[in-house]
């Protein structure tokens, strides 16, 4: 958000703001966004919708990774069964 304010991008149309965001994020993020389903083409160009979908995507991905980490770091005492 600070970048948008500093560059006066916040005053631009949503389509321009979305295009700038995706250009800054790079090809990998663009590929992810292009794979999503949107209700219509306008939604695909709406910065608010794209940011919301990015947040859901990355938060759930982070939670999965953290969950795997938590599972894999568990320590069992010698003689302790896996069920305890």
How many helices? The count is 5
- Average pLDDT works out at 86
Largest sheet composition: none
End-to-end CA span: 47 Å
Q: What class, by secondary structure content?
A: mainly alpha
Low-pLDDT segments, ≥5 res: none
Tell me the helix content. 55-70%
Strand content: under 5%
In short:
With 84 residues, this protein is an all-alpha fold.
Write the layout of secondary structure elements.
Elements: H1 2-6, H2 14-25, H3 27-34, H4 41-44, H5 47-72
Describe the structure.
The protein is mainly alpha-helical. The protein has one domain (2-72). It has five helices and no strands. The protein has helices spanning 2-6, 14-25, 27-34, 41-44, 47-72. The longest helix is centred in the last third of the chain and has 26 residues, at 47-72. The radius of gyration is 20 Å and the shape is elongated. The mean pLDDT is 86.
Can you tag this structure with a few keywords?
5 helices, 84 residues, mainly alpha
């Amino acid at each position: 958000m600070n970048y948008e304010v500093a560059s006066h991008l916040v005053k631009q149309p949503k389509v321009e703001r979305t295009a700038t965001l995706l250009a800054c994020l790079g090809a990998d993020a663009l590929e992810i966004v292009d794979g999503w389903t949107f209700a219509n083409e306008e939604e695909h160009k709406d910065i608010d919708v794209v940011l919301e979908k990015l947040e859901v995507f990355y938060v759930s991905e982070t939670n999965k990774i953290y969950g795997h980490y938590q599972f894999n770091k568990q320590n069992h005492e010698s003689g302790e069964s896996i069920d305890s």
